[in-house]
């Protein structure tokens, strides 16, 4: 329609009308570009918002998992002290029986650092590393990934170091489903061990093996605590960003 009008005005040499037609075309194109830009910006903001929400969920889950693992490591260290004391005395006190069995069964069971990477991996796979505009959040996230990967890289070596100590102790114990022991991390735990206390005491290296495992277990505990602190520090940054830019208040704390 505008083309027919422009053609007629040129033929009539109505230059004012020709200029007006061009002005209408230019304004129309400008408005179209602005609308397209606005729609693209709105879509980018929505993608960023959804990414931050999913990232928040992942960090909440990471906190719950890492906190559980830290408490498990603390229990292991406590149980290992009971095992060493019992082997030194060649006697297991009645009250120490659950801790003694747990200490032997869980000796050297250490998880790698917990980080639920669903959203992080999605960002990397899409190549949209700039999807999070807040530099403080993206920098902190990159730092967290770096420290987790650094600690995870040493996990296999730690586990390999546990194996000879576990094998030494396993010569004197037998796993059985007929026995049970209390484990707060495994409700209604089924299974336990039958152990030869005299053989364990006679093996002069048994207590040393438990002690040798305790040191890297403590090292893992101290290495993972700062990771949990970084997770907790990231949560308020995410929550503040969602609240300030989208008016979204996220409630709820990680569950143990």
Describe this structure in words.
- The chain has helices at 2-11, 15-89, 97-105, 118-126, 135-153, 155-170, 197-202, 206-246, and strands spanning 173-176, 192-195.
- The protein is mainly alpha-helical and 256 residues long.
- It has one domain (2-246).
- The chain has a two-stranded antiparallel sheet.
How would you concisely characterize the structure shown here?
The chain is mainly alpha-helical. The protein contains eight helices and two strands, in the order H-H-H-H-H-H-E-E-H-H.
Features:
256 residues, mainly alpha, two-stranded antiparallel ribbon, 8 helices, elongated
Q: Provide the spatial order of strands within the biggest beta sheet.
A: 1-2
Name the average pLDDT: 85
As a whole number of angstroms, the C-alpha radius of gyration is 32 Å
Count of discrete alpha- or pi-helical segments spanning 4 or more residues: 8
Shape: elongated
Low-confidence stretches: none
Give the beta-strand count.
Answer: 2
Largest sheet: 2 strands, antiparallel
Strand % is under 5%
**Ends: how far apart?**
67 Å
What's the structural domain tally?
Answer: 1
Helical residue percent band: over 70%
Structure classification: mainly alpha
Give helix and strand order, one letter per element, not per position: HHHHHHEEHH
